[in-house]
Amino acid sequence: MSVRPSVESKPLPLVMSAPRRGKPPRHFADLSAEERTAAVVELGEKPFRAKQLATHYYAHYTSAAEDMTDLPKASRDLLVENLFPQLLTPARVMQADGGTTVKTLWKLFDAAKVESVLMRYPNRSTLCVSSQAGCGMACPFCATGQLGLTRNLSTAEIVEQVRSAAKSLADGDIPGGPARLNNLVFMGMGEPMANYKAVMGTIRQLIAPAPEGLGMSARNITVSTVGLVPAMNKLSAEGIPVTLALSLHAPDDDLRSELVPINTRWSVDETLDAARNYFEVTGRRVSIEYALIKDMNDHAWRADLLGEKLTARGSGWVHVNPIPLNPTPGSIWTASERDVEDEFVARLRGHGIPTTIRDTRGSDIDGACGQLAAEEEE
């Protein structure tokens, strides 16, 4: 009989709000269209300069004064200095898969660090962004969770991750020639639902048509959560058809409360009910993310239990993505054996649940979010 590794018995802290730190400087991407115009006028410029700046930033992915040749030099220097402070500085860049997977460790204005991962495939590209520096959810198998929470990111700090990736693709820096950024997933460092305002501010800018935003499809944006039920219900009411991804990792409360401590606040059933509600309100199928951990949550009976809980809430509303765990150095956690993984998938499919093993890119470049930041801290 296999023995499940135990989790430390002492309670794991839940940090729902960020500690006080310095506030990022005001950035163009933090402002609404009206606020941008007001900011430009405050600097002594004509109101139409705001639209020119938006076109450069969202359509050409640039905030560099030298690129804004349709503005007088004195004006562009003034506007860039006041509205486009450098929020992110690359501290480390790693590549895999022939350069089509790029992981960047960003240093923020206050020396906090976050990561983003750009993945280019033959027919699409996807960026994984961070919404917090660190994370307060304290999931013991997650590198970011073990860092603890430093602070929430501002809207502009998240948007800047996206703009940088979009520019790299457009400029042809990623092998395969110039391309557009197609998909965005909030699956990097942090719990997106714990930084709800900034995440929604980012999404609204991403889906706004150019030149006021990046013109992305909301259907190509995925927001992940470990199960902050009130925020999930709030997202349902937004009227923006993003994809909701629920990081479940266990179908039973005893184990999930160890793996995902927020489960002590909102149970598996409460969380699944909120996910089902999201489908009912938006018509968007929910993704269930399930990290397969050897001898921990990969038992066939747990696959059956998960299948039963999902089918009890109807059909056609959910898709399960089992994810081979990307272990962190020195961790007791490791990925399931391939035959166990196959049996888990087969059991779910036997319940009629669409199930796809998620592609795990970048394992050779510390692909699990938080690993680079953890190394830097050490």
TrEMBL record:
Segments forming domain Radical SAM core: 121-364
EC primary class: transferase
Compartments in which it is found: Cytoplasm
Catalysed reactions, semicolon-separated: adenosine(2503) in 23S rRNA + 2 reduced [2Fe-2S]-[ferredoxin] + 2 S-adenosyl-L-methionine = 2-methyladenosine(2503) in 23S rRNA + 5'-deoxyadenosine + L-methionine + 2 oxidized [2Fe-2S]-[ferredoxin] + S-adenosyl-L-homocysteine; adenosine(37) in tRNA + 2 reduced [2Fe-2S]-[ferredoxin] + 2 S-adenosyl-L-methionine = 2-methyladenosine(37) in tRNA + 5'-deoxyadenosine + L-methionine + 2 oxidized [2Fe-2S]-[ferredoxin] + S-adenosyl-L-homocysteine
Record note on cofactor: Binds 1 [4Fe-4S] cluster. The cluster is coordinated with 3 cysteines and an exchangeable S-adenosyl-L-methionine.
Keyword Lyase part of the UniProt annotation: no
One CC-aspect GO term: cytoplasm
Record keywords: 4Fe-4S, Cytoplasm, Disulfide bond, Iron, Iron-sulfur, Metal-binding, Methyltransferase, rRNA processing, S-adenosyl-L-methionine, Transferase, tRNA processing
Positions with a binding annotation for S-adenosyl-L-methionine: 190-191, 224, 247-249, 326
Any single GO BP term: rRNA base methylation
Matching Pfam families: Radical_SAM, RlmN_N
Record-annotated active site: 115 (proton acceptor), 369 (s-methylcysteine intermediate)
E.C. no: 2.1.1.192
CDD domains the UniProt entry points to: Radical_SAM (cd01335)
List of residues binding [4Fe-4S] cluster: 135, 139, 142
MF annotations from Gene Ontology: 4 iron, 4 sulfur cluster binding; metal ion binding; rRNA (adenine(2503)-C2-)-methyltransferase activity; rRNA binding; tRNA (adenine(37)-C2)-methyltransferase activity; tRNA binding
Cofactor(s) for this UniProt protein: [4Fe-4S] cluster
The family this protein is said to belong to: Belongs to the radical SAM superfamily. RlmN family.
Note: Reaction proceeds by a ping-pong mechanism involving intermediate methylation of a conserved cysteine residue.
Known function: Specifically methylates position 2 of adenine 2503 in 23S rRNA and position 2 of adenine 37 in tRNAs.
Protein name: Probable dual-specificity RNA methyltransferase RlmN
Species name: Oerskovia enterophila
Native organism taxonomy: Bacteria, Bacillati, Actinomycetota, Actinomycetes, Micrococcales
Gene (UniProt): rlmN
